[in-house]
């Protein structure tokens, strides 16, 4: 068994299998998620090593770089292995490092889907996520445009990002929603009601910042002692906790280094008892 596959498989939208422990590409861009990576060759190695380790689920967005993360994915992995699934997003514009402004006008979302198809060298995007709901545009127009793209065969499944249970329910009145992606990790569990809803409804839940942007990975952080006791790294415990939390959980840890990638992927095989899970929750 290759390493990532120990995390098990989840079928996005009921028909698109992914290995649950995935990879997020945001760390492959420059400072402030702006511009190219410091080390282009290491970025390519990270992506190719992910596939070697059995990762099949890659999260990206038009806005990472912008365009850089999608371009790196195509450069490293195209032509894609049959089981590689790329989830991209649109709906956040970038006007500078660290600046993210929602734009949900239908014609803009459609343009970004077309440009992602071109950059990723794909005929259809497996999972297309509305990066943020734009409060200035009716939800029907935003999700409705994604539904049109889906009917045209340009995207296979629709996802949402940073939403409430109520928003997810409202979007499901407009189109089938296969996944949601919200901030969630051992130390930040505000999205728990949404996770429980997704678990009950069999909607994929993609936790962003699964390592709390590295805070949970620190060798001297809150998970340090538990990691030593378990013969694991702090990152591995944070990811294993997520994987145990729900069968619909699809963590996408980000890293710019092959060494950290290998550390993270090994989390797939870590077993935790109910007592150990509770102890981790009490720590963070
Ligand atoms: N939907 C949204 O609005 C949204 C928002 C943010 C992020 N995301 C997605 O979520 C993904 C994950 O978030 P993220 O990458 O920002 O944060 P993360 O996965 O929580 O943490 C990444 C940070 O942890 C460090 N790290 C990773 N593995 C490590 C290890 N084994 N040991 C020590 N340090 C380690 C990385 O540094 P190194 O590079 O040095 O390893 C990096 O600084 C993103 O890539 C993106 O795809 C989505």
TrEMBL record:
Superkingdom: Bacteria
Keyword check for Oxidoreductase: yes
Pfam family, one: Aldo_ket_red
Keywords from the named record: Oxidoreductase
NCBIfam families given in the database record: PRK10376.1 (NF007695)
NADP-dependent oxidoreductase domain boundaries: 20-283
Species of origin: Nocardioides fonticola
The protein's name in its UniProt record: Aldo/keto reductase
């Amino acid at each position: 068994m290759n390493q990532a596959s120990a995390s098990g498989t989840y079928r996005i939208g009921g028909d698109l299998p992914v290995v649950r422990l995935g990879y997020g590409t945001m760390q492959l861009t420059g400072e402030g998620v702006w511009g190219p990576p410091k080390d282009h060759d290491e970025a390519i190695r990270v992506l190719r090593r992910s596939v070697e380790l059995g990762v099949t689920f890659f999260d990206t967005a038009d806005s990472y770089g912008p365009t850089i993360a999608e371009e790196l994915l195509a450069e490293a992995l195209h032509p894609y292995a049959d089981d590689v699934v790329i989830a991209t997003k649109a709906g956040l514009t970038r006007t500078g490092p660290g600046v993210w402004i929602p734009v949900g006008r239908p014609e803009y979302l459609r343009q970004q889907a077309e440009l992602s198809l071109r950059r990723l060298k794909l005929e259809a995007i497996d999972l297309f996520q509305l990066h943020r709901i734009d409060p200035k545009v009716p939800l029907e127009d935003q999700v409705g445009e994604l539904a049109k793209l889906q009917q045209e065969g340009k995207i296979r499944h629709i996802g949402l990002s940073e939403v409430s249970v109520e928003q997810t329910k409202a979007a499901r009145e407009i189109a089938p929603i296969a996944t949601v992606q919200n901030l969630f990790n051992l130390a930040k569990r505000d999205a728990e009601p949404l996770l429980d809803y997704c678990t009950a409804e069999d909607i994929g839940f993609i936790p962003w910042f699964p390592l709390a942007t590295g805070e949970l990975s620190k060798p001297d952080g809150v998970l340090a002692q538990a990691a030593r006791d378990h013969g694991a790294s702090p990152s591995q415990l944070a990811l294993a906790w997520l994987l145990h939390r729900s069968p619909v959980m699809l963590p996408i840890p980000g890293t710019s280094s092959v060494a950290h990638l290998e550390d993270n992927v090994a989390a797939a095989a870590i077993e935790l008892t109910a007592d150990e899970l509770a102890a981790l929750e009490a720590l963070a």
